[in-house]
Amino acid sequence: MTAPDTAVLRVAGRPVGRYVTRPELPARLSPRPYLHPVTTLAGTTVTELTPADHAHHLGVGVAVPDIEGHNFWGGRTFVRDRGPTELDNHGAQRHTAFARRDPDGFVEELRWVAAGTELLRERRTVAATQLTGSAWALDFTFSLTNVTSGPLSLGSPATNGRPGAAYGGFFWRARKEAEPPRVFTPDAEGEDAVHGRRAAWLALAGSDWTLVFAAATDATRRDPWFVRAGEYPGVGSSLASAERLAVPAGDTVVRRIVTVVADGRLEPDQAAALAGKAVAA
């Protein structure tokens, strides 16, 4: 039986994703709602939860490593001139309510809290849509509003002095297999060629599955992609890459990623067609 505050996403009557709103996790992992498992229409799981290599990776969700010094990503904090450091600075995302919940999606209200203070209020909209007999799309939008009386600054290890580590924002920890996945965009291929670059979409292709991440708004397209394939498979959209993201009091940051979840290994032309169809849908 599904808990009252847990959502199961369905496409054409099939369960394709489970959304956990109140996970029982230690503070060091920055507890937050997540989607896991997420599966293809044929039933292949394409997410991982608390893997041995990075216990703070929680399926699909939103995580930010530095909000005014508070860690909403989990694990160690990158400190300039010190490197990754264990700090007691972890925040948590707290599910408030579902404003709407249907078999194919939901609208959720959340509070981002650290040190007893609410920093951000979020509205998260998630929807699942069938694209073909072997592919569906996960439409994920998050809106973060600064509810404090002053400005907030969002950062990443990259803005704190670690080159190439601009993670923070939407993040998908994918299935780890014996061989690294193929990664490509419309005009580049390989982890080194696509990491830290902007592209309308980016694909991660495993043994018998493909994920195509499409940036669905102008603001989202301006964010570079954070990509890992060799060390572990994961894709994110970077909120703070070259510089910190300032959010004045009362302002809202909105991003939208639409992810194609497909059976089989897609070629670039197939990925492009499905990405376009997913965003349009």
List the SSEs and their pairings.
Blueprint (H helix, E strand, L loop, with lengths): L6 E5 L2 E7 L13 E5 L21 E8 L2 E3 L4 E3 L3 E3 L6 E11 L2 E10 L2 E16 L2 E12 L5 E4 L13 E5 L8 E3 L6 H4 L6 E5 L3 E7 L2 H4 L3 E4 L5 E4 L7 E3 L4 E12 L4 H13 L1
Antiparallel strand pairs: 1-2, 2-3, 4-5, 4-12, 4-13, 6-7, 8-9, 9-10, 10-11, 11-20, 12-19, 13-18, 14-15, 15-16, 16-20, 17-18
List the uncertain runs.
none
Any idea what the shape is? globular
Q: Major sheet: order of its strands?
A: 8-9-10-11-20-16-15-14
Report the mean per-residue pLDDT as an integer: 97
Using brief descriptors, characterize the structure shown:
mainly beta; 3 helices; globular
Please describe what this structure looks like.
This protein has 281 residues and is mostly beta strands. Helix content is 7%, strand content 46%. The chain has three helices and 20 strands. The strands form four sheets. The chain has an eight-stranded antiparallel β-sheet with strand order 8-9-10-11-20-16-15-14. The protein is globular and about 50 Å long.
